[in-house]
């Protein structure tokens, strides 16, 4: 990440098209944070109020003239549009503005390219980059040389910048094959966890909500924590022992964001689908963010796209150390809500207690007398369930316990 900081900063003009001024301002605030994360400095912001973007140039001629004047007056080196542009829109804007033109998708892909450290992460990012660039080749010949340096040229996709369509398709096919191997490995791990009956809790949330901070507090995972969008990209799974002695697996996922590029969703589907197969979801929300309700909508919409709608959800309102504690915080879509500060640890014990309660609801309650020759079955209950009572009698061992339904036939 340090290398991103050391590059000479680009100066960019941010452009948004929306039906309402407030909507455009909010989206540009986030785009400015994204640009900052990618190492760019915002020179100016331009908003056009209209129902839909101009099909040929994204913004109208009057706004193009305004942007041209700002490029001259601010010494900006490029523009970033707040939506994904078509090849025609990019080409027309580059010709009329005579500068580098980027869109929100390219910006997010660039950030991901700087944050992928594992083999899987690099494959996923390069695949998303190439799919994006392949979709932009129409009308641009066999090269994308207009991009120049800086944002959009980092990461594993950089060396393929001038590949023609045929080579891009070949590279995409190769990466898909590699990714299939990774997915198979992930599925083997998932099935192993299911055989071991270890519950999985998936941590999801809008980017910069504090997911990594929570994971670190609970498990000492050592995951990077920064007050930045997409500070961490590669998923991390750690074990955690709850108060009852039961072990669960906590899995952190990449943060969600408005207008998350579909190329990324497709490429990272195997990673994001950890939420789909989890027993419980911690939906982490930044309670101090004024846009938290909209961020929650984005998270639920993304989970819906992934088919992760069956798991119980605890909405974790994080960063309570930055807000008034009497603030009304609700999430009607969650089974429970908890207020915490992952930085100070406040409320975390309550969160784990609520998690245990929800996980216990998924288990079966048994009362059974075991012969002393069946003592091994009680050890299985200890490992995979919750032993409530264990009483040694003359005729055997009496047990009251909660167990996963999957091991009912074995105990």
UniProtKB/TrEMBL annotation:
PROSITE patterns: G_HFLX (PS51705)
Ranges in coiled-coil conformation: 14-41
Domain Hflx-type G: 199-363
SUPFAM superfamilies: P-loop containing nucleoside triphosphate hydrolases (SSF52540)
GO cellular component, one term: cytoplasm
Cofactor or coenzyme needed: Mg(2+)
Compartments where found: Cytoplasm
Top-level division of the source organism's lineage: Bacteria
GO MF annotation terms: GTP binding; GTPase activity; metal ion binding; ribosome binding
Pfam families membership: GTP-bdg_M, GTP-bdg_N, MMR_HSR1
Presence of keyword Nucleotide-binding: yes
UniProt-annotated binding residues for GTP: 205-212, 230-234, 252-255, 318-321, 341-343
Reported function: GTPase that associates with the 50S ribosomal subunit and may have a role during protein synthesis or ribosome biogenesis.
Similarity comment text for this entry: Belongs to the TRAFAC class OBG-HflX-like GTPase superfamily. HflX GTPase family.
SUBUNIT field: Monomer. Associates with the 50S ribosomal subunit.
Name of the protein: GTPase HflX
Organism field: Anaerostipes butyraticus
